[in-house]
Specification:
This protein is an alpha/beta fold. It contains 16 helices and 14 strands. It binds iron/sulfur cluster.
Length: 398
Amino acid sequence: MAKQPYPTRLKLEHTSFCNAQCIMCSHYFSNNTQKKMMDDSLEERITPLLKHVKRILLQGSGEPLAHPHIAKYIDKYADLGIEVTCNTNLSIMNEALAMAIGRAFKKIHISCDGCSSDVFEGIRKGLRFDVFKRNLKLLRESCPDLKIEMYTVTLRQNILQLADIVSFAYEMGCDSIVITDLNPKDILDNEKDMIRNYPSVAKVNMSKAVAKAKELSLPIVYPKYILELKEVSTYQAELGIMESIPLFPSDDFQKKLQAFYKSLNLDSHSVRANETLFLADSGYHCNGICNYLLDEPYIDANGDVYPCCANGQYNIGNIYETSFEEIWNNKFYSGLRELFANGHIPQYCKGCLYLRNHYLNDVEVLDVDEGFYKQQYNVDMEDLTRRFKEFCKESSNE
Ligand code: SF4
């Protein structure tokens, strides 16, 4: 196969550390056990690549602005003419950082799941609502041209204040709001927090949020299916169920969950994808090639390279061992592209979340069935899920 041109887009993890432990996030139980910060040696290794890159997404498992030298890196990307963007919890901001963002960013995504201290701080554990507001004000004033988009995960804990969150976004000078559904995790036993379990409450409050955004002319994206949910009970009855469950898990539960997670010793970093297992035809067919294979690699703070963030367990090279150019054209990368080009979904991509959610415009799976959704993991997920469920049940019985 001909050499693949250098990518023009890059996802780069500057840190896997997060200063928050949000109740729906893996940081809630993993407690930063494997935190890693990108250093100048990694930046040196990717310098040849940066000459070609036009856009960097500060992506990864941590809070990107928590890297102590993030302003310096953002400034460097701005000097190279690279546009930068990120999702942030906006708990860290100062004038130097706001200036660097003003130079390199056109748009930033900020996470906010509450417009009162109790809800915001209950969901985004470890963060403070007053600090978030102060930082948003500083960012808005320092970067008048920056598009600020608020990201809100709706869940049982904040559905009643969804319309107020929309007003809050508007009052704080955000340019748009994206409301997303909760992606539950067995480990957190949090399916009960999904608003679709409470259709009457979900519909009423989502409608109010959408109406408020219209009234304020604030662009909004939201899960439309919520408005079509079938009501099975009354608003009051659902409210009663929602309120019968403690709003937030206790500190004691979190401590035990963290200790239990640690005892499982799962936090090993990603492993190299095995060619025999993953560079094989999954048996599923497609039209098109996933664009991430052609133009947007992901490099984590350890220097491991992946085609995307959807399969963060299996890397396909490391920037400290081999040059980016070699990895970008190695047998694994080229093989994945070739399988797609010939209409076959590779085993590496089976169960991909982005394919599942039709997030990829350039590729379509032709014969999806239940089996397609089963991803390969480097641990026995069924056994793990069972053990977590048992743990959660035992802990809630205590
Ligand atoms: S199809 Fe999914 S898993 Fe495969 S490269 Fe694209 S985003 Fe990643």
